[in-house]
Amino acid sequence: MMVGLTGGIASGKSTVSQMFKEKGFVIIDADIASRKVVEPDQPAYREIVQVFGESILLPNQTLDRSKLGSIIFSDEAKRQKLNSIVHPAVRKQMESWKNEALAVGKQTIIYDIPLLFESKLTNLVEKTIVVFVEEQVQLERLMERNHLSESEALARIASQMPLREKIKLADAVIDNNGELEETRSQIEELIKQWSLHP
Ligand code: ATP
Fold it and tell me: Does ligand 1 lie within 6 Å of residue 160's CB atom?
């Protein structure tokens, strides 16, 4: 079974995906894929340098992600161009990891995808899980983890699809407001309910 795992910023998606991993499940992480495909030996990297120029490189020749980020933040056409290079490469990378996992007999793959519903990646998965926290808990955990002020953290939360919208789209919701052990037992329950085997 192909399962998509998502959430909001600091809602606990990595925490939950780590718990699945400890139970032997394969995790395919879209963030890791998106960093890997722009490493200097990759085709997407060469295309990005051709399109955006060498000024988006750091002295060590890797992409200056924050510079690229600020370019596309203010230029919609460039954002689309970058996505048209990066997205297919990410999809291909995830596909290749999936094939590796299937080749060694894995039965369930958990796709950890922050923007699962916002992107067109829902067609990779049969079921979706959203990690939910109340906004106040999200705010506190985000401020603490990223050393942000309340207004900075609120701005980041507000820039995303509200978690309340995401849970409407989910097949299962993991409530991560409580202790880690409570989260873990919901995962165990879901594994039984969906008959998931690593
Ligand atoms: P992002 O997508 O923004 O990287 P995330 O959804 O993966 O975030 P985590 O990094 O797993 O979220 O969790 C956010 C923060 O909250 C971390 O510092 C984590 O240690 C903490 N945290 C997660 N779950 C709990 C919990 N149940 N109790 C206490 N702290 C928690």
Answer: no
